[in-house]
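Example 3.
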Amino acid sequence: MKKVVVTGVSRGLGLALSKALLAEGYGVIGLGRGESPAFLTLEADYPGQIAYVQADMTELHALSDIARHISKAYGPIYGLVNNAGIGAAGVLATMHQADMEKVIATNLLGPMTLTKYLMRAMLARKEGRIVNISSISAQTGFHAMSVYAASKAGLEGFSRALSREAGKYNITVNCVAPGFLDTDMTEGFDGDQLASIRRRAPLGLPTSEQVAGAVIYLLSPAAASVTGTVMTVDGGSTA
Ligand SMILES: NC(=O)c1ccc[n+]([C@@H]2O[C@H](COP(=O)([O-])OP(=O)(O)OC[C@H]3O[C@@H](n4cnc5c(N)ncnc54)[C@H](OP(=O)(O)O)[C@@H]3O)[C@@H](O)[C@H]2O)c1
């Protein structure tokens, strides 16, 4: 059974992705900062396929020990999906410095640090898949999302460059960039904003399950030669 580490499995896309991975036969080592009861209930349908490790992506100094624990207890690890993230809507001029730093720590520094430590065993084994969850906001400007967009654009640059040093070790590094998803992250969007976002998507807005499908592909044998790319799943919003 190939094992995949997924961050942010408590809800939203991370939970949907965990279900999809389990259904495909992967073992899922879920990371989250709370108790994640919804993730843990998946054990009933997929006994022996899940494990849960508490980790806060902003506690960067702890990620080395967490990665070591994961490799020792559950390794070898085939894949890593950096999914945990926060949105921080707000115009830059009035955004608190602490909020800006939290977005960058959660969405960029945390994933880079966890990748650094989990990737070491992949390098030694000469096998691995890394998928970073970006956002269409990395490439398309949206009002009041500059810091979030910067974190995701950083993640895309990180993935592209890392794919070059990882490739010779048979490790791929890619991003999946979802459009608007109906999760807790977007619950603050008002009706007008939502209507305009919906109008922009000729195929309709994507579901978390459809985004999970892109991740499943990037982890699959069919994607062995795909690296350094961004797969956009946005119903055509940015076409
Ligand atoms: N929703 C969208 O429209 C959309 C669009 C494009 C990209 N994305 C990206 O998709 C990913 C998943 O987002 P979502 O929509 O599923 O959001 P969500 O429903 O708000 O879930 C976010 C997940 O990240 C976890 N998380 C947040 N901060 C964390 C931290 N410091 N340490 C560990 N885990 C942390 C949360 O855990 P807790 O339960 O502990 O808070 C939760 O599991 C994110 O990277 C997001 O940027 C979302």
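The chain has one domain: 3-231. The beta strands are 3-7, 27-32, 50-54, 79-82, 128-133, 171-178, 230-233.
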